[in-house]
Amino acid sequence: MSRSGAGQSPLPLRLALDHPTPDPPVKSPSRSVLITGATRGIGRELARQLHAEGFRVFATGRDADQLAALQQELGCPGEPADLGTAEAALALYAAAHRALGRVDVLINNAGFNLAKQPIEALTPEALDASYALNVRAPILLAREAFKEMGPRRSGHIVNVLSSVVHMKPANYAIYATMKHALHGFTGCLLREAQALGVKVTAVYPGGVNTTFRAQPRPDYLQPASAARMIVQCLTAPDDVVVHELTYRPMVETNF
After folding, report:
1. DSSP for 151-217?
2. How far is CA 175 from CA 39, 43, 70, 180, 238, in A?
3. What are the tens digits of pLDDT across the range 164-193?
4. What's the helix, strand, coil split of the chain in %, to 5?
5. How many Å apart are CA 123 and CA 132, to the nearest integer?
6. Helix or strand or coil: residue 23?
7. pLDDT, one tens digit for every residue, the chain (255 residues)
8. CA–CA distance, 85 with 80 (Å, rounded to integer)
9. Is 220 designated active site?
10. What 3-state class would DSSP assign to 47?
């Protein structure tokens, strides 16, 4: 009786050449990332997921207790910050740079919407507060990041906006206006950054089940799912840039 396999022809040389053994993946050096609004929701999940991917995370948010718990969980540097003033935004970037040595990725995730309001109920104070956090802070942080990333011709700036940019909903005049402003800035930044090899991504999530909402919405996107979409943009191949990313829960029909 012949041994098992006896008499079988070896693989043809052509087949072996057509299917070479792949080279082992080359692991790129860990990148550093500054994440605003990291104390809850999408930002907190971004910190967790990017830390798991090997990124060196600097986390920030207004809730000092939540931030301390996240830092203990991940062992990452961070600093509580209220980005309501220009000085606070600039000081935050400087602190992140000191802690990380360099900022490879900036994620402008912090933002807020006070409440649904009809236009006749708007106040100057509400306009100023929304502008400070939703527009001025991310623009200043992006400026500081671009000043660092441009000369070395590498880096990635992610601005987390909202799918409200694609709509004109009633009772969201302030929030929609500020997100439209950041949308416009991001488009200009993209043009200037591309010439210097810096990636820019604008993200437009639909409804997410976070404490951002007055009532829970379990049928909306989970924060971990929303964060995963952004992580995929940051871990895409080097020759790929996602300029705009819109995603929604399956139940959402306001588009």
Report:
1. HHT--EEEEE--GGGG---TTBHHHHHHHHHHHHHHHHHHHHHHTTT-EEEEEEE--B-STTSSS--
2. 21, 19, 28, 9, 34
3. 999 888 999 999 999 999 999 999 999 999
4. 45, 15, 40
5. 14
6. coil
7. 444 444 444 545 444 445 455 444 334 569 999 999 999 999 999 999 999 999 999 999 999 999 999 999 999 999 999 999 999 999 999 999 999 999 999 999 999 887 788 999 999 999 999 999 999 999 999 999 999 999 999 999 999 999 999 988 899 999 999 999 999 999 999 999 999 999 999 999 988 888 767 788 898 999 999 999 999 999 999 999 999 999 999 998 877
8. 14
9. no
10. helix
Strands of the sheet with 32-35, listed across from one edge: 78-80, 56-61, 32-35, 105-108, 156-160, 199-205, 244-247
Burial of 215 (0-12, 13-18, 19+ CB in 10 A): exposed
Decide if domain 28-247 falls under CATH 3.30.70.120.
no
Catalytic residue among 93, 131, 172, 175: 175
Kindly report, residue by residue over 193-210, the tens digit of the pLDDT. 999 999 999 999 988 888
Count of alpha carbons within 13 Å of 28, Cβ hemisphere only? 11
Domain ranges in the chain are: 28-247
Residue 177 buriedness (CB in 10 A; 0-12 / 13-18 / 19+): middle
CA 188 to chain centre: 18
